[in-house]
Amino acid sequence: MIDKFNLLLSSSDYKISRKLATILLFLPIVLTFIMALLIVLPSFRSLYFWLLEENNPVELLTFLLFFVGGCYGVYSSLNIFKSVKKYVFGFYIFFSICLIILAMEEVAWGQWFFFFETPEEWKKINYQGETTLHNIGALQFYNDNLRLIFGISGLIGIFLRRFSSFRAIGVPTILILWFIIITFQSVLDVIVDLAQINNKYGYIVEKSSEFIEMLIAGSAFLYLWLNYRLLKITTTTL
Question: Which of 154, 140, 221 is CA-nearest to residue 182?
Fold first, then answer.
């Protein structure tokens, strides 16, 4: 049992302490438990919804994680350009740029900070009347599916990591609970939409998607941070 737990942590692969690896493994469980308590306890329910409102702590933290992760990814990719295969470099650059785009989408490309008006023509086709891409027309209704795809992709990435061809871009096993939670909630979100559940339970599931986006941003940042540590260790020992 201890050997399996050590394999799950794989802390030695990334030259991080076992304590830090354990924290990273169980952090999404702790965060999910805290959010569940807030919604279950009536006296804290208003705090739960406040945290998940637009331009409030959860969304701002999501923006920071995406933006910092994307910038870190681009910088680190350029540093490893000469020491990794081209497909590895290309994958990380593409992934990192996507994170920066997601970060800007979270704050409507600065609209939340600078309070500029959405162009009239853009407002007509945007579900929320913002300067965002993911709220345009039909794209608004596919966000749940995109979160589900991210979660499933993470789980597949963990499986593929055991093969040498995918080790450089595979997902660290430390992040398995992150992707299980993301996938599970995204499935619930899809079911709520398909079944058109409009009661309070459906609303709670829908609002929780903001929390899941924060987990997505956190897992994406940790994915890059851990894998760049692995690549740096690997390339310096060759």
Answer: 154
